[in-house]
Amino acid sequence: MQPLAELLAQLPPPQLPAEPSLGGWLCAVLGWCLGLVGLTYLAFWLWMLVRCLLHEPDRFFWLWLLLVVPFPGAIVYAVVRVVPEQGWQPPGWLRRLSRRKELARLKAAAEQIGNPHQFVQWGDALKDTGQWPQAAEAYHRALLKEPQNLPALWGAAQTAERLHRADETRHYCRRILDIDPQYKFGDVSLLYARTLMSLGENGTARQHLEQHCRKWRHPEAVYLLALQCHAEGDVHAARQHLQDLLRDLQASPPAVSRKFGRWQSLARKLLKQLPPPTA
After folding, report:
1. Which of 13, 72, 157, 185 is the least crowded, having the fewest Cβ atoms under 10 Å away?
2. Which of 21-30, 88-97, 149-158 is predicted least confidently?
3. Cβ(223)–Cβ(266) under 8 Å?
4. Are 105 and 94 in contact (CB under 8 A)?
5. How much helix, strand and coil, in percent to the nearest 5, is found in the chain?
6. Rounded Cα gap, residues 79 and 101, in angstroms
């Protein structure tokens, strides 16, 4: 028998692993990117699925689409249902960047001409780009020149709400309603009601909402009225308002029903929380 040392000497030298080529690295990176995209889409699909289960009035069709055709079903559902309902916009920094020249032009016009109209235009552009404190200042300067300017008052009310200045919001909305109760077809009145509720003025809020709902059947206003009645212990009135809201939306065109699907879902939830009607 040959000695062990001779046998080991006859063995071929060990082969070192080859260095990965550029193509191998590219394939590895591509595989990692595809995996990341897949996980991201899975999370997005789960988000859309949960959202559909909780808030979608036509959930059966959309659930079928999401489960049977997950790709691109989640994208279709987001584009058709979620984005229009939420009113999503590009980020504020992107809007500011895309409208930079327009903002500079409107600022120059407001400071050079100085009419309330120019300050309102500047404030509207600042508001649209998410610059709320600057927009509030522009509307304030317009009101210094013309205190009864309705567009400036409305812009000031919207910015005050966004900046969580409830007292200012109530003040501006009240001034608008004293001048023109029909202004913005009830949007001012609805904001006024929301502000009264946020300030804890529940009795005044209910009275205002009852008057509001006689003129405008905003789903949000009807729901807020039902919520206020429920908080005050008036279960019968709350149930009646919720049932009226659901009937209004069921009788409306599908596009309108989908647009206000959130209030339909909230109305159904609150209706289930109410005690059963007494015989």
Report:
1. 13
2. 88-97
3. yes
4. no
5. 80, 0, 20
6. 30
Q: Give dist(CA 229, CA 205) in Å, integer.
A: 10
**pTM score over 0.70:** yes
Please, are residues 65 and 77 in contact by the beta-carbon 8 Å criterion?
yes
Structure tokens at 85: 């309902």
* Structural domains present in the chain: 28-86 (no CATH), 114-273 (1.25.40.10)
Rounded Cα distance, 166 and 136, in Å: 14
Residue 9, CA distances (Å) to 1, 16, 17, 139 in order: 15, 18, 21, 92
Contact 136, 128 (CB under 8 A): no
151 vs 82: CA distance, rounded Å: 30
Q: Is the pLDDT of residue 92 over 80?
A: no
The CA distance from 126 to 136, in Å, is: 9
Predicted confidence at residue 39, as pLDDT, reads 87
Residue 159 near residue 173 (C-beta atoms within 8 A): no
Tokens 């079903």 appear where?
A: 73
